[in-house]
Amino acid sequence: MEQLIWTYGFEARKLTWQGLALEVGLVGISTRTIERAMGTLGYRKCIACKKGWTSPYNADRRVKAAKLALFYRPTPEDWHDIRWTDEAHFVIGSEGRMWIIRKPGERYCPDCIQHSRTSKQEDIPSDERERYHVWGAIG
């Protein structure tokens, strides 16, 4: 089963425990037994991430911007008028999030990232989903 995950990547990782066993020819074994056996190798079911690490280019830009900011604001008091912001988008209802099989530390490996679906592929019509956009600031 582990070899199947290594060979077929995301397609194998998104299988159920029972589906994984059937793919390698194991029939009549309980799902819990398969889950425990794979657990001894460190595998578990987790929700797939939808985006990976920051690109090396963007990471380098962020480090340069942080160093420049520290140059102009060297003391904690210099930061009292600064606010950091972030935003998030989410949907209440079916988002099509997949549960995948992975080990700790594999969160951002390419085989563990779920690609976003287009609106044509959504299971639930958009008028039946509650969409939210949140924004926050801290300082």
Give your account of this protein's structure.
The protein is an alpha+beta fold and 139 residues long. The protein has one domain (2-138). 32% of the residues lie in helices and 19% in strands. It contains 5 helices and 4 strands; from the N terminus they run H-H-H-H-E-H-E-E-E. It has helices at residues 2-8, 10-13, 17-23, 31-39, 56-72, and strands at 44-47, 84-92, 99-102, 130-138. A two-stranded antiparallel sheet has the order 1-3. It has a two-stranded antiparallel ribbon with strand order 2-4. The longest helix has 17 residues, at 56-72. 9% of the residues are buried. The mean pLDDT is 82. InterPro entries: RNaseH_sf (IPR036397). GO terms for molecular function: nucleic acid binding.
Alpha-beta classification? alpha+beta
Q: Helices and strands, in N-to-C order?
A: HHHHEHEEE
Query: What can be said about the biggest beta sheet?
Result: 2 strands, antiparallel
Tally of structural domains:
1
Number of strands: 4
Query: What gross morphology would you assign?
Result: elongated
Strand content: 15-25%
- How many angstroms does the end-to-end distance come to? 49 Å
The percent range for helix content is 25-40%
Return residue spans where pLDDT drops below 50 for at least 5 consecutive residues.
none
Rg from alpha-carbon coordinates: 21 Å
Helix count, DSSP H or I runs of 4 or more residues: 5
Give the spatial strand order of the biggest sheet: 1-3
Instruction: Estimate the mean pLDDT confidence.
Output: 82
